[in-house]
Amino acid sequence: GQTDGQVMYILAISLAAAEASIGLALLLQLHRRRQNLNIDSVSEMRG
Question: How many domains does the chain have?
């Protein structure tokens, strides 16, 4: 019913927010490393 749709909507919004926060954290970490270290060190983040 309608409750199932609302639960799916909340789940989708929560998942999108989690993805956005992870992406923002990765970009912030990349910016911090580039500012303090050599640009060549970005390739070291791959592992």
Answer: 1
Residue with tokens 């060549």: 40
Cα–Cα distances (Å) from 18 to 10, 25, 29, 34, 41, in that order, read 12, 11, 17, 24, 27
DSSP three-state, residue 37? coil
Q: What is the pLDDT of residues 3-32, one digit of tens each?
A: 999 999 999 999 999 999 999 998 888 888
Is the model's pTM score more than 0.70?
Answer: no
Rounded distance, CA 40 to CA 10, Å?
A: 41
Residue range(s) defining the domain that contains residue 2: 1-31
DSSP code of residue 47: -
